[in-house]
Amino acid sequence: MTTQSQPDVPSWEYSPALDSTKVTIEQKNKLFIGGKFISPKSRSWFATVNPSTEKKLADIACAGKADVNAAVASAKAALPKWSRLRSTERAKYLYAIARRIQERAREFAILETMDGGKPIKESRDVDIPLAAQHFFYYAGWADKLEYAFPGANPSPVGVCAQIIPWNFPLLMAAWKIAPALACGNTSVLKPAETTSLTALRLAEIFQEVGLPPGVVNIVTGAGDTGRLLAEHKLVNKVAFTGSTQVGKLLMRETAGTGKKLTLELGGKSANIIFADAAIDQAVEGIVSGIYFNQGHVCCAGSRLFVEESILDEVVHKLKHRLSTLRVGDPLDKNTDLGAINSKSQLDIVNGYIAAGIKEGAQLHKTTKHRLPSKGYWCNPCFFTDVQPSHTIAREEIFGPVLSVMTFRTPEEAISRANNSPYGLAAGIWTDKGSKIFEIAKKLDAGIIWCNTYNKFDAASPFGGFKESGFGREGGMQGLRPYVQLGATLERAN
Ligand code: NAP
Ligand code: MG
């Protein structure tokens, strides 16, 4: 408990959360190939840490070339039988996976939070339920592909290399694996280096439900493992979620190879708030839009455009709301912001904050919480007096840092929002429905939320324009990258 003499509120004023004791973690986490957990031929391992304590959680296998070859060969060998299996049978596996995720949800949520640093209330209420929902949703499509693509004779693409980032580890795995399997493809998944544990636990579920060996294989490792996987000759499709920088590399590498490619990349999304909006509600949306998952969200509303007449009111309310956010132990269910995922990401975020100050923007960092001495932490903050040319207004920060700018007319709001190489998401806050439709039409963004932000659903397609990538995940549109149309002869065999 706090004492009177302490000037500020420590993050740990509640009793320590005991959840971490409920999950056991293998000390050596092997690769998942051909339905079995196997030691890496590379004989190489790396540590994964808990970013809120800096303590090592476990060793993870680092897949080298021979391991990637074995995983792709296993996916290739499983393809003919899996792709010809009755679609209703494929659906049964997906339903079973979804149900097992639900049954083991608490364990997954705790593990996700320990490995990645996100608050337990997010992993428990968002990541894990949505991962299960994606398997349920695509189970429903597995035997209805001819209705999704009427008369077009959909057939599988083949072996899919699926590479995912660290911000939503299990959810991104579900986004990739569920539609691929529903359409009759097989997969080799490469989780991010800092967050492999929940993907490997998902592999336990594949064993539990009796998914045929080789249908999904998991190769853990760093960027090099991802590169080896994407460039493998037997891979028919690459599905990538991550940075625009690596996305561009993959575009170059896959060009001319005949491999299909989808990219879900970065963002610098605009949240636009008009004077006629419900301001309190909008401030809640702005806060969840940028500070959700410590700002480790590709579609984070990291640029806030405020109609000039309400700037003072919005800034005042934002400061107040910020001061009530709890930063600290991610396993504590009262925590709003957990740990930054890694030391290197924390350095990147701090570098952007320093750039914002240096270039002349004004920093507001109002939270009163003392940060723990161990772990990677960043208090939520925002900048005012931001110019569009400032680095913090242009580049993706991927941390809890908001840039506040103003506009006078709807046209100015639209042109400033669109003034970005990215085009992932946007938010519009106004009382007027007609304004919403008019503005949404003109924004270059794949996802547009109106009077809300960061709401996700398996039935709703997600993806960007411009340097935010191409292809959609989720919804009926999310099936398209995993089928070939009208081309049974081209079918991978
Ligand atoms: P990243 O460095 O691009 O990594 C993404 C994945 O690619 C990781 O598994 C990474 O392995 C792997 N990788 C790294 N270099 C590679 C290479 N040369 N070839 C193949 N794979 C390679 O991105 P990140 O820092 O993990 O994630 C943050 C970025 O992802 C942000 O820009 C964010 O906006 C974006 N993101 C986008 C979406 C979306 O849906 N649009 C969703 C989430 C995140 P290692 O982890 O071992 O480096
Ligand atoms: Mg970790």
Describe the structure.
There is one protein chain. With 493 residues, the chain is α/β, with parallel strands linked by helices. It folds into two domains: 263 residues, Aldehyde Dehydrogenase, Chain A, domain 1 (3-Layer(aba) Sandwich); 188 residues, 3-Layer(aba) Sandwich (Aldehyde Dehydrogenase, Chain A, domain 2). The chain is 38% helix and 18% strand. It has 15 helices and 24 strands. The strands form seven sheets. The chain has a seven-stranded mixed sheet, sandwiched between helices. It is globular and about 65 Å long. The N terminus and C terminus are likely disordered. It binds NADP nicotinamide-adenine-dinucleotide phosphate and magnesium ion. The site of magnesium ion has 5 residues, from strand 5. NADP nicotinamide-adenine-dinucleotide phosphate binds next to helix 8 and helix 9.
In short:
By secondary structure, the protein is α/β, with parallel strands linked by helices. The chain is 38% helix and 18% strand. It folds into two domains: 28-265 and 468-492, Aldehyde Dehydrogenase, Chain A, domain 1; 270-457, Aldehyde Dehydrogenase, Chain A, domain 2 (3-Layer(aba) Sandwich).
CATH homology-level superfamily of the largest domain: Aldehyde Dehydrogenase, Chain A, domain 1
Global mean pLDDT: 94
Low-confidence stretches: 1-7, 489-493
Give the number of helices. 15
Inertia-based shape: globular
**First-to-last CA distance:** 64 Å
Whole-number count of domains: 2
CATH topology of the largest domain: Aldehyde Dehydrogenase, Chain A, domain 1
Name the assembly state.
single chain
Look at the structure and give the CATH class of the largest domain.
Alpha Beta
At CATH level 2, the architecture of the largest domain is 3-Layer(aba) Sandwich
Strand sequence of the main sheet, in spatial order?
15-17-18-14-13-20-21
Strand content: 15-25%
